[in-house]
Write a structure and sequence with these properties.
Layout lengths: L13 H8 L4 E6 L6 H14 L4 E5 H6 L9 H20 L3 E5 L5 H9 L6 E7 L2 H7 L4 H6 L21 E4 L5 H14 L6
Parallel strand pairs: 1-3, 1-4, 2-3, 4-5
Helix pairs in contact: 2-8, 4-5
This protein binds 3'-phosphate-adenosine-5'-phosphate sulfate and adenosine-5'-diphosphate.
């Protein structure tokens, strides 16, 4: 019931927070298959931003599922709830003035669109970590594809559960064709061109 709840405007404005931080707040929304490189690239980009003096926060897949979203499964319904909560938390961190990164498969386009819709214009940057399934499977950093192929993990993304390919991501990273360093440069380059960072 939300009928007796009233939104409060805050005393410290977004513009003041932005000025204080020295960069614009933004959400880098990484999406891609398991093993595509979301976590690796998001961590490397965050490290670079940190080195440049930016204020950052990273919400990463497995860690969030061990805490905030503990108990959620990989059913369609639970993945939707997983992404809904993550979007709302990310929005709070962006409101605090940070450069926020989220590294989740986020396989359904409707959920990514909803996350975009709750952010201010220009603050949602979809980063598609585009790695062919065969490459993810050959990397198999956690041995999960092997288990999924053996029928031990139901609803595994790319094998027995859908992944909606992003149609117009702001940043399209092809990890089978470029190194981690090149991907970091691509993303930092985007943030400079978009005026998020000026350093
Ligand atoms: N069934 C199934 N399908 C896909 N992935 C699975 C599954 N079961 C466990 N895992 C592990 O959980 C990580 C994905 O969690 P996410 O929260 O990012 O998924 S989702 O956005 O809710 O779809 C994913 O981590 P990443 O490899 O970092 O993507 C897997 O390690
Ligand atoms: N060009 C590349 N870009 C990103 N990751 C790569 C690349 N080449 C190899 N890898 C490896 O692929 C794996 C990706 O795993 P991870 O970052 O956990 O993916 P995800 O978070 O999408 O599940 C890591 O072991 C990483 O070192």
């Amino acid at each position: 019931m939300t009928e007796n709840i009233v939104w409060h405007d805050q005393t410290v404005s977004r513009a003041e927070k932005e000025q204080h931080k020295g960069h614009k707040p933004v959400l880098l929304w990484y999406t891609g298959l398991s093993g595509s490189g979301k976590s690796t690239i998001a961590n490397a980009v965050e490290a670079k931003l940190f080195e440049l003096g930016c204020h950052t926060y990273l919400l990463d897949g497995d860690n969030v599922r061990m805490g905030l979203n503990k108990g959620l499964t990989f059913s369609e319904e639970d993945r939707i709830e997983n992404i809904r909560r993550i979007s709302e938390v990310a929005k709070l961190f962006v409101d605090a003035g940070l450069i926020v990164s989220t590294a989740f498969i986020s396989p359904f386009k409707e959920d990514r669109a909803r996350a975009r819709s709750i952010m201010h214009q220009g603050e949602f940057v979809e980063v598609f970590i585009d790695t062919p399934l065969e490459v993810c499977e050959s990397r198999d950093p956690k041995g999960l594809y092997k288990k999924a192929r053996a029928g031990e993990i139901p609803n595994f993304t790319g094998i027995s559960s859908a992944f909606d390919v992003p149609e117009q991501p702001e940043i399209h990273v092809k990890t089978a064709e470029q190194s981690i360093e090149q991907s970091v440069e691509q993303i930092i380059g985007y943030l400079r061109e978009a005026g998020v960072i000026e350093i």
